[in-house]
Amino acid sequence: MYEKTLTQLAAALKSGEFSSRELTAHYLQRIEKADTKLNSFISVTAEQALQQAEIADNARANGTAGTLAGIPLALKDIFCTRDVKTSCGSKMLDNFIAPYDATVVEKLSAAGTISLGKTNMDEFAMGSSNENSYYGPVKNPWDLTAVPGGSSGGSAAAVAAGLVPAAMGTDTGGSIRQPAAFCGITGLKPTYGRVSRFGIIAYASSLDQAGPMARSAEDCAHLLGVIAGHDGRDSTSVARGVPDYVESLDAPLSGLKIGLPKEYFGDGLAPEVEKAVRDAVKVYESLGATVRDVSLPHTHYAIPAYYVIAPAEASSNLSRYDGVRFGHRCDNPSDLIDLYTRSRAEGFGEEVKRRILIGTHTLSEGFFDAYYTKAQQVRRLIRQDFLDAFEDVDVLMGPASPTPAFDLGAKKDPVSMYLQDIYTIAVNLAGIPGISVPAGFVGNRPVGLQILGTHFAEAQLLNVAHQFQQATDWHLQRPAFAEEYA
Amino acid sequence: MQWETVIGLEVHVQLATHSKIFSGASTAFGAEPNTQACAVDLGLPGVLPVLNEQAVAMAVQFGLAVHSDIAEVSVFDRKNYFYPDLPKGYQTTQMYHPIVGPGDVEITLEDGSTKRIRIHHAHLEEDAGKSLHEDFHGMTGIDLNRAGTPLLEIVSEPDMRNAKEAAAYLKAIHSIVTYLGISDGNMAEGSMRCDVNVSVRHKGLDVFGTRAEIKNVNSFRFVERAIAFEVERQIELIEDGGSVVQETRLFDPERDETRSMRTKEEANDYRYFPCPDLLPVVLDQAYLDHLRSQLPELPADKRARFKNELGLSAYDANVISASRDMAEFFEAVHNECGDAKQAANWVQGELSGALNRESLSIANSPISARQLGELISRVLDDTINGKAAKEVFQALWNGQGESADAVIDAKGLRQVTDTGAIEAMIDQVIADSPAQVAQYRDAEPEKRGKMIGYFVGQVMKASRGTANPQQVNGLLKEKLDALL
Amino acid sequence: MALEDSHVRRAAHLARLAVSDDQASGFVDDLSRILDMVDQLQSLDTKGVAPLSHPLDATQRLRADEVTEANQRDAFQRCAPAVENGLYLVPRVVE
């Protein structure tokens, strides 16, 4: 069963080939066997999953089941779930059970999908390797000595290893697309505001966005259709109709105008990655697309701007973790300041502290204009780069990451880690959607092709990605690790 | 040396919305601790603020009432600091782009003169929770019911020059917000709280002295007392060769003094930045026009109308227009009886006295405006005399009768104006009082005027107070003089 | 803009993070390198460019003024470290 895509599983459930209970039990068994090596889950909720599967099977028998009813999924442990721990990868929230479900979780439940559990992640979504988790690093199923990427590393690894057909991630600077690329799966970051942020633990509010991570663009289309839409509980959620993302998958690509940003093919890009991406672009040309070079002149300012804006928002967003109403509280605080400083010092890991300190510093008196205001100005220029490019082309293509997955422990210096996100981070600053699709390998490590569209162009991105997946089979490759537990 | 005091006020007004500014939790006062603090108010992970339309409308109404420019685009910022009553570790407020821009308020001083106080701006923000310091094993208890209650912070220019002006300004703000119905203005429950900025300078100087901020001065009286103490303290300090430190002080009403707060922060750095969870609030002209059309007549307009059209004195007009309830009650009484001066006298005199004695607000007056107006009408048309009117008032107050007429009839208080009937009573009294008549006759003519009082009393008594006193007086004099 | 030890200590204080001397010097190194990278921004001329806070030019939607939240104190306080009589407890706050 695990070798099937979500779309295929939905068809099998519909035809009665197997039940949701059987399917759910199958994946739970795989998790139990394989995840001791991967560490992709923080919590596995087997009992609830089997109960939900039974409900889905009954709905199926009654003829009331929707397309995705009975499909097992996993949630990055950043989505609040009633009755199940939501840790956000942090010691701070190791004891936190939210009294509410995130809107995404509600929508997935309403569609009849089943949650197998909560996946591992970089603490508070801060990281690009999943090495910043309180629950330990996640391994890449393609190569257990490699990182799965981050911060949605657990979701990516679990999908790639066939422990779940699809999972939900969040992307603040590349946290869906980069791990999708590293693990050889398809990951979509929607337009900012397309998916409600309610119940998603905030890292950087003006950048965070949730999206699906699955085996194919078609799978992502099904899931986006479920989770997208306006939510009255999120002021930044956009009131705009949700198109049928599946229906538009088969549109032909003849006449599609593809732009290749020259800044995405410069220094630092591994030659093998570049080759895989250029080969993918050739496939598109064979499908009738035209290709031209474009420029996003402010690309190199994206990482500096991001490392002002995201930590600034994070330093404020993370102030609520003070040991008073929930979360970690230090033992025997001597006074209020001791309660605060010790609870927070004990509860947060190094990278989180680093970003809180950076954000606090850059917002503080005497530095605010030079850093924060400047970064917001640059943010506008970066967005304008994209808007200008989309005047001339339909989509942009390039690598999702300059290299394939690197080795666990390889990047000790925070700045060298940050620079990994060079191709993904500007997208969040601009708020546009992006998708990463498998496009080859360097050795045994996957390479991701990133496709970007203008605001609310998800249907087009999914169509463009799907057509590639109809012409290639990179997305169908499975790591040997997945087969070991067949 | 001549000193001048410079005062500016920051008034926090709790807006009378049903739900909080960013959540659907109730704002009702006095609930069990933390029963009205929802996930958003508690700052639980992942939850988000959504702005209450009524809070925006109320802020705009205030702005329109004080002739402010309403910002087409206003923005919420985060003010970051740690405190247990501040669940998120930041207060959502409007630092850089407040919803209400510069405006002004007219205040009336005791001598009836008026002065214009400029408003710098007013902005929306969320209230914090409360810390309770009763003994929880040496711990402090935190109640977050109040967290997220909408506040309008109204910041004046430093335009006030003495404590009376400051109190008058606070009263004017109180009038406006209660007229608009955007706050209950209840200072005892903290619906209106005030921070006072005070400095002193040599008269004639243009530069301001260093100011002290007195926090949470929560009654009109305390504002005056706090300023009086603070001014004296600052002047003494400077005259003794010292200088005023810019600091936050607390007014202690029991000791009648201000004292320096040991600040929770040595040096605050609030790191304001635009709240990324909220978008810019954009208001269009149609919206503003709609709210403008809904504005009630405001205190200053009422005051002017009472004075100019109804002929009330400046003092009466000011007192009656200060509260919307009183003004509307007065107007209803006036509509009923048609005599503004009498209506004003009764509302401020008999009615206010009775309300004060029983600690009732005019909204809860046991006697209605209609009843009072009718009562006054009966005085004006000579149906009853002044003494009987007080009796009717008391009866209506006690609920002994539906209307003034009903009480008058039930108690037989209708004034006797029939000359024949009065003459009959006078004849009887004269016949019954031979000794007093003899005394009257023998008295010096200039003393007789006083002595007539006895006979008036007897006639009034005989009429059970219903005889018209002027008629009684006139007829008695005629009859007694005829006996001379 | 060079980062000094005092900046890190001040930020740690404002952010209420206990930082030991050893940790502080580590943070000074890390943060200095991050800020050196960030300082590239200074080379860009942004005169006249309006800051951008949100990626979409959207405006705030308003909620009807209705009470929609029922009392859930028990559920909310289940994850609280210290409560008594419905109050959250903290070490005594000196006013």
Automatic annotation (TrEMBL), chain A:
GO biological process, one term: translation
Pfam families for the chain: Amidase
Species for this entry: Halovibrio variabilis
A GO MF term: transferase activity
Domain of life: Bacteria
PROSITE patterns in the record: AMIDASES
Reaction equation(s) it catalyzes: L-glutamyl-tRNA(Gln) + L-glutamine + ATP + H2O = L-glutaminyl-tRNA(Gln) + L-glutamate + ADP + phosphate + H(+)
Record-linked HAMAP family: GatA (MF_00120)
The name this protein goes by in its record: Glutamyl-tRNA(Gln) amidotransferase subunit A
Keywords: ATP-binding, Ligase, Nucleotide-binding, Protein biosynthesis, Transferase
UniProtKB/TrEMBL annotation, chain B:
Reaction catalysis annotation: L-aspartyl-tRNA(Asn) + L-glutamine + ATP + H2O = L-asparaginyl-tRNA(Asn) + L-glutamate + ADP + phosphate + 2 H(+); L-glutamyl-tRNA(Gln) + L-glutamine + ATP + H2O = L-glutaminyl-tRNA(Gln) + L-glutamate + ADP + phosphate + H(+)
Mitochondrion is among the record's keywords: no
Gene3D superfamilies associated with the record: 1.10.10.410, GatB domain, N-terminal subdomain
Keyword Transferase: yes
EC number: 6.3.5.-
Domain of life: Bacteria
The Asn/Gln amidotransferase domain, residue ranges: 328-480
Assembly and interaction partners: Heterotrimer of A, B and C subunits.
Membership in a protein family: Belongs to the GatB/GatE family. GatB subfamily.
Name this polypeptide is given: Aspartyl/glutamyl-tRNA(Asn/Gln) amidotransferase subunit B
The species this protein was found in: Halovibrio variabilis
Gene that this sequence comes from: gatB
